[in-house]
Specification:
By secondary structure, the protein is an all-beta fold. It contains no helices and 11 strands. A hairpin with a 5-residue loop joins strand 5 and strand 6.
Amino acid sequence: QVQLVESGGGLVQAGGSLRLSCAASGSIASTNTMAWYRQAPGKQRELVAAITAGGNTNYADSVKGRFTIVRDNAQNTVFLQMDSLKLEDTAVYYCNANIRSWYTSRALYYWGQGTQVTVSS
Protein backbone atom coordinates (compact mmCIF):
# COMPACT_ATOMS: atom_id res chain seq x y z
CA GLN A 1 0.00 0.00 0.00
CA VAL A 2 2.85 2.36 0.89
CA GLN A 3 6.38 2.17 -0.45
CA LEU A 4 9.54 4.13 0.21
CA VAL A 5 12.11 4.17 -2.56
CA GLU A 6 15.59 5.54 -1.91
CA SER A 7 18.23 6.69 -4.36
CA GLY A 8 21.49 8.60 -4.42
CA GLY A 9 23.92 6.37 -2.60
CA GLY A 10 27.35 5.52 -3.94
CA LEU A 11 31.08 5.80 -3.52
CA VAL A 12 32.65 9.13 -2.65
CA GLN A 13 36.00 10.31 -1.36
CA ALA A 14 36.36 11.73 2.10
CA GLY A 15 35.43 15.39 2.10
CA GLY A 16 32.99 14.92 -0.75
CA SER A 17 29.22 15.18 -0.93
CA LEU A 18 26.23 13.01 -1.71
CA ARG A 19 22.50 13.66 -1.81
CA LEU A 20 20.06 10.94 -0.88
CA SER A 21 16.43 10.97 -1.91
CA CYS A 22 13.46 9.00 -0.62
CA ALA A 23 10.06 9.10 -2.25
CA ALA A 24 6.96 7.72 -0.59
CA SER A 25 4.18 6.42 -2.80
CA GLY A 26 0.94 4.54 -2.54
CA SER A 27 -2.34 5.21 -0.79
CA ILE A 28 -1.03 8.03 1.39
CA ALA A 29 -3.44 10.09 3.41
CA SER A 30 -0.87 11.97 5.45
CA THR A 31 2.88 11.88 6.12
CA ASN A 32 4.22 12.80 9.52
CA THR A 33 7.88 12.61 10.51
CA MET A 34 10.35 11.45 7.88
CA ALA A 35 13.84 10.38 8.81
CA TRP A 36 17.11 8.84 7.74
CA TYR A 37 18.80 6.07 9.68
CA ARG A 38 22.05 4.30 8.96
CA GLN A 39 23.65 1.01 9.86
CA ALA A 40 27.35 0.31 9.59
CA PRO A 41 28.71 -3.26 9.57
CA GLY A 42 28.62 -4.74 13.05
CA LYS A 43 26.76 -1.76 14.50
CA GLN A 44 23.20 -1.01 15.44
CA ARG A 45 20.97 1.09 13.24
CA GLU A 46 21.08 4.71 14.37
CA LEU A 47 19.10 7.85 13.68
CA VAL A 48 20.90 10.30 11.42
CA ALA A 49 18.32 13.03 10.94
CA ALA A 50 14.58 13.56 11.16
CA ILE A 51 12.14 16.19 9.99
CA THR A 52 8.54 16.76 11.01
CA ALA A 53 5.75 17.72 8.65
CA GLY A 54 6.14 21.26 9.92
CA GLY A 55 9.84 21.34 9.12
CA ASN A 56 11.37 20.90 12.56
CA THR A 57 14.63 18.97 12.31
CA ASN A 58 16.74 16.81 14.57
CA TYR A 59 20.27 15.56 13.88
CA ALA A 60 22.67 13.09 15.41
CA ASP A 61 25.59 14.90 17.01
CA SER A 62 27.99 13.16 14.64
CA VAL A 63 26.46 14.78 11.56
CA LYS A 64 25.45 18.21 12.84
CA GLY A 65 26.82 20.94 10.61
CA ARG A 66 27.58 18.49 7.79
CA PHE A 67 24.23 16.93 6.88
CA THR A 68 20.96 18.68 6.02
CA ILE A 69 17.54 17.08 5.87
CA VAL A 70 14.76 18.68 3.87
CA ARG A 71 11.42 17.50 2.57
CA ASP A 72 8.92 18.24 -0.15
CA ASN A 73 5.52 17.66 1.38
CA ALA A 74 3.71 17.92 -1.93
CA GLN A 75 5.83 15.10 -3.34
CA ASN A 76 6.10 13.07 -0.11
CA THR A 77 9.84 13.12 -0.58
CA VAL A 78 12.69 13.60 1.85
CA PHE A 79 16.29 14.43 1.00
CA LEU A 80 19.54 14.13 2.91
CA GLN A 81 22.34 16.39 1.74
CA MET A 82 25.61 15.00 3.06
CA ASP A 83 28.67 17.25 2.91
CA SER A 84 32.20 16.90 4.28
CA LEU A 85 31.77 13.15 4.35
CA LYS A 86 34.01 11.12 6.62
CA LEU A 87 35.13 7.51 6.54
CA GLU A 88 32.88 6.80 9.52
CA ASP A 89 29.82 7.86 7.52
CA THR A 90 30.11 4.64 5.53
CA ALA A 91 26.91 2.66 6.08
CA VAL A 92 23.65 1.55 4.57
CA TYR A 93 21.24 4.46 4.82
CA TYR A 94 17.56 3.78 5.34
CA CYS A 95 14.61 6.08 4.88
CA ASN A 96 11.85 5.91 7.48
CA ALA A 97 8.47 7.61 7.44
CA ASN A 98 5.40 7.72 9.64
CA ILE A 99 2.49 7.54 7.24
CA ARG A 100 -1.23 7.11 7.52
CA SER A 101 -2.68 5.40 4.50
CA TRP A 102 -6.26 5.53 3.34
CA TYR A 103 -6.68 1.95 4.62
CA THR A 104 -5.54 2.36 8.21
CA SER A 105 -6.97 4.31 11.10
CA ARG A 106 -3.55 5.17 12.49
CA ALA A 107 -0.15 6.07 11.11
CA LEU A 108 2.44 3.32 10.69
CA TYR A 109 6.21 3.39 10.24
CA TYR A 110 7.58 2.33 6.89
CA TRP A 111 11.15 1.60 5.83
CA GLY A 112 12.94 1.89 2.54
CA GLN A 113 15.17 -0.86 1.19
CA GLY A 114 18.38 0.96 2.03
CA THR A 115 21.09 2.55 -0.07
CA GLN A 116 24.82 2.03 0.38
CA VAL A 117 27.05 5.00 1.07
CA THR A 118 30.77 4.30 1.00
CA VAL A 119 33.33 6.95 1.85
CA SER A 120 36.90 6.21 0.79
CA SER A 121 40.18 7.78 1.80
